[in-house]
Amino acid sequence: MRSAQLSEDIRDLNLSYLMLAQRLLAEDREHGMFRLGIGEDVAEIIETLSPAQILRMASSGLVLCHLSFNDELILNLLSNHEREASVASIHAAIVAGSRPVETLA
């Protein structure tokens, strides 16, 4: 039962991520790529996914989105309550922007 709930939660996360990614790329491709941390090749694939492909991918059981929480500096900037929140967010965006984007291997 717990495994079924976990699978459903992963599917919901993936579905939300893929739908958000498509919307970000449709509204402003360059800005969307920056916010998602993806390159041209990945953006092109996400943009062309059909609803059926999105549902199939979302149900894969793998977490598809890549979070910036694996970067200690960014995580500390975003979670530091002592700094001005807007300054910390801008600093985190600058640091994230300097990192390499995800590409297909």
Largest sheet: none
Distance between the termini: 36 Å
Low-confidence stretches: none
Q: What is the assembly state of the chains in this entry? A: single chain
Rg value = 16 Å
In terms of DSSP E residues, the strand content is: under 5%
Topology pattern, helix = H, strand = E: HHHHHH
Describe this protein's structure.
Helices cover 69% and strands 0% of the residues. It has 105 residues and is mostly helical. Helix 1 (2-27) runs antiparallel to helix 2 (29-36) and helix 5 runs antiparallel to helix 6 (85-97). The N and C termini lie far apart (36 Å). The model has no long low-confidence stretch (mean pLDDT 82).
Topology:
Blueprint: H1 2-27, H2 29-36, H3 40-48, H4 51-58, H5 72-79, H6 85-97
Summarize the structure.
The chain is mainly α. Helix content is 69%, strand content 0%.
What are the key terms here?
single chain, mainly alpha, 6 helices, 69% helix
